[in-house]
Specification:
The structure is a single chain. By secondary structure, this protein is an alpha/beta fold. The protein has one domain. Helices cover 44% and strands 20% of the residues. Strands 1, 2, 3, 4, 5 and 6 form a six-stranded mixed beta sheet that branches. A hairpin with a 4-residue loop joins strand 2 and strand 3. The two termini are 14 Å apart. It comes from Flavivirga jejuensis. This is Transposase. InterPro entries: Transposase_11.
Length: 225
């Protein structure tokens, strides 16, 4: 938010002559936060790419860390809690950004929906609660979305399926693992290649917004207030 205010102060004062201080700017944004969902939805619908597929989607989540899991979280405690990030192999306090996007060959996926949850919310649980009733869709996710029985039923009732890298089966003998390895590795690499653009989307969001530096910004805002 500080960078947005600074940019407006330097380049947009003719448009916003009553911009005011950063603290006032931040408070105003907080008061209209309920409007942002509708605004983002309108923008996503207005800027749909000319070429993309509504039949194929990628999905994933990324952490928004407000403090290390070694300490008790104090920032925005009403919307944050403790979770685990397998990619970073760490516990943390904060939120998760969950994204569902249409595949867009050779480009970043076009977001269909972005949802924020406390850090403890499981990705598969969020999918089941929010996106599991979408019909005629092929989803590409990581291993956390692996639930064979659930997705078999979804495929039969909604003609939708979830494709994920192959997850190891507990108790499988080494002989069977070696027997299936070549096929499983090839399949897993294919799925991972298709879903890789959503990781690029997260990298783009981090680069443009510094969203994963939320802990530093939040502490700075509290000190200013």
């Amino acid at each position: 938010m500080n960078k947005i205010h600074q940019f407006a102060q330097e380049y947009l004062l003719e448009w916003f002559p009553d911009l005011g201080s950063y603290q006032a700017f931040n408070n105003r944004l907080n008061r209209i936060s309920c409007v942002m969902n509708s605004l983002v939805e309108t923008l996503l619908n207005e800027f749909v790419p000319k070429v993309y597929s509504r039949n194929y989607s990628v999905l994933d989540s990324m952490p928004i860390i407000t403090c290390s899991g070694k300490r008790a979280g104090k920032i925005a405690s009403e919307i944050t809690d403790k979770g685990y990030c397998s990619t970073k192999s760490m516990y943390y306090y904060g939120m998760k950004l969950h994204a569902l996007g249409f595949c867009n060959t050779g480009r970043l996926p076009h977001p269909e929906q972005i949802i924020f949850t406390p850090a403890s919310v499981n990705d598969l649980t969020l999918y089941k609660d929010t996106w599991s009733e979408i019909e005629n869709r092929t989803f590409f996710g990581d291993k956390i979305y692996n639930d064979t029985a659930f997705f078999q039923n979804m495929n039969q009732t909604l003609n939708s399926e979830m494709l994920t890298p192959v997850k190891a089966v507990k108790g499988m003998t080494d002989v069977l693992k070696r027997f299936d390895r070549a096929c499983n590795d090839l399949y897993s690499r294919a799925v991972s290649k298709i879903r890789q653009p959503i990781e690029a989307l997260f990298s783009w969001l981090i680069e443009k917004s510094d969203i994963q530096k939320d802990s530093k910004q939040a502490r700075s805002d509290l000190q200013k207030d």
